[in-house]
């Protein structure tokens, strides 16, 4: 992102404003601009956010998987750049309890987490908005069910799943998280769990830089105006939405869930790897990821 516009810790790991390359996707659609998009803070509704992010992830999936594929692993379930593994955290429940469960992974990307779940005997379905991300899931393989859909309109019957999970998928990008949570609740069976990770809200108050310049507050934590990158015509080409911690708790409750835990992973000594604005330097001082563990009673 540009230096003068404060925004989120970007999942692409690019601290600069993203270049929206002129590409043709696999469906033959030609997508947008040659010019560097402008980074700004302005309102962006559900439809604009969804459309912008779908095409952004289609254009950038190759680079994302190239840059982060080794860290993500083909069948690792990692909750964020700190490297907290579900293998150790067991936020979905003990590993031995996963066998035979129907699990929905939302914003699955290349479905690395779903592959980890399948290896433990669960029956995951990997859902993502981006066609290109799901092509990477196909490339890696594993024979998982893949569904191209928006998290705000889940194409499943009520009570189809025992668990739902998302590692940085969908939730940071949607204008109406309560609508997503309500959908997730609908497709979960009573007694189910919904566990999702997002950029820790406090990061929105700091520059998205891994070094010392990322340690000084530069924007209001309380400013909920979305971070938007837009083309020359003012059309959004990338959107992220900020909610404070309190907003997220209220959204979880409004979506019909009970909050069981809020995990803020600490940066472990073994992890020397930077991911965009996430770094050992900052990770040792301020949280970078928030993981919400929610129960569907
Ligand atoms: C940061 S990536 C995370 C992918 C994967 N969970 C991982 O850890 O690599 C965010 C993913 O969310 C997907 N996404 C964004 N908005 C979405 C939406 N409204 N519905 C479903 N998926 C969405 C993107 O296409 C992208 O694959």
Protein described:
The structure is a single chain. The chain has 297 residues and is an alpha/beta fold. It has one domain (42-296): Vaccinia Virus protein VP39 (Rossmann fold, 3-Layer(aba) Sandwich), CATH 3.40.50. The protein has 7 helices and 12 strands. The protein has helices at residues 46-72, 86-89, 112-119, 131-140, 177-187, 245-254, 280-283; strands spanning 23-24, 30-31, 38-41, 102-106, 123-128, 146-148, 161-167, 188-199, 227-230, 236-240, 258-263, 289-296. A 7-stranded mixed sheet has the order 6-5-4-7-8-12-11, sandwiched between helices. A 3-stranded antiparallel sheet has the order 3-9-10. Strands 1-2 form a two-stranded antiparallel sheet. Helix 1 runs parallel beside helix 4. It is globular. The protein starts with 22 loop residues before the first strand and ends with a strand. The model is unreliable at 12-33 (pLDDT under 50). Bound molecules: S-adenosylmethionine. S-adenosylmethionine binds at residues 11, 50, 53, 57, 72, 107-109, 128-130, 133, 150-151, 167-170, 173-174. Residues 1-54 are annotated as: Disordered. This is Class I SAM-dependent methyltransferase. InterPro entries: Methyltransf_11, Methyltransf_Superfamily, SAM-dependent_MTases_sf. One of its GO terms (molecular function) is S-adenosylmethionine-dependent methyltransferase activity. Residues 104-196 form the Methyltransferase type domain.
